[in-house]
Amino acid sequence: MLASHRVAMERSVALVSAVRDDQWSAETPCAGWDVRALVDHMTSENRGFAAAARGERADRSVWDSVPTDNPRADYATSAADVVAAFAGLDLDADTFWLPKIDANRAFPARQAVSYHLLDYVVHAWDVAVSVGRPLDMPPAIVSEVLDIAYREVPNGPRRLLPTAGFQPARPEPSSADPMDRLLAVLGRSPVWPPI
User: Does the global pTM surpass 0.90?
Assistant: First the structure.
């Protein structure tokens, strides 16, 4: 999983690096977020997960989204940081404090890394479709993330909450494309902008 995570992060950095200055205000599949807000969110989540991987258990400020003057470089730095922090993990022994999910429990490292991997494959797609670029994500990684989605993101009433990260699942397409299937499982349409 760590090798897949590293590749997914490299691909997301390439996408964010290619965002043109005139595309920061483009709408994204993440309701209420333009590309700049999405990248700011991705950067702060990288920082939070990296801190959690290194043992942070109390300081919520590491999770705060703080817009910066150079979102491309800051995103690349945060991505390299989270990859480096994850590289030293024992997936079967280490734990994470993830206050944005549940501040009152520790998450097994394997589960926490799977959450981050899923988020960044999907957010890479969000960035790609928002700026009109292809998503260069290996199908094997997307299939791995689809398995994570089935296991870790149950479809149910929680997806109807205003704070839900994903909408209720859509019917899975007959297409064999794992990305189309992943998006449907997480409540997204593979068509952007929507028709």
Answer: yes
HSE toward the beta carbon, residue 17, CA cutoff 13 A:
11
Which residues 6+ apart lie within 8 Å of 83 measured at CB?
5, 6, 9
Q: pLDDT for 125-183, tens place per residue?
A: 999 999 999 999 999 999 999 999 999 998 888 888 877 788 899 998 887 799 999 99
CA dist 137 and 176 (Å) reads 15
Please report whether residue 192 resides in a domain: no
The packing angle between helices 71-87 and 35-53, to 10°, is 30
The reply to whether omega before 193 is within 30° of 0 (cis) is: yes
Contacts of 104 (CB under 8 A, 6+ apart): none
Identify the domain containing residue 105 by its residue range. 2-185
Q: Which two tokens stand for residue 25?
A: 């205000």
Asked whether 33 and 43 are in contact (CB, 8 A), the reply is: no
Element (H, E) at 43: helix 35-53
Angle at 145 between CA 181 and CA 123, to 5 degrees: 85
The enclosing domain of 34 has a CATH number of 1.20.120.450
Nearest-angstrom CA–CA distance, 14 and 18: 6
In a domain, 27, yes or no: yes
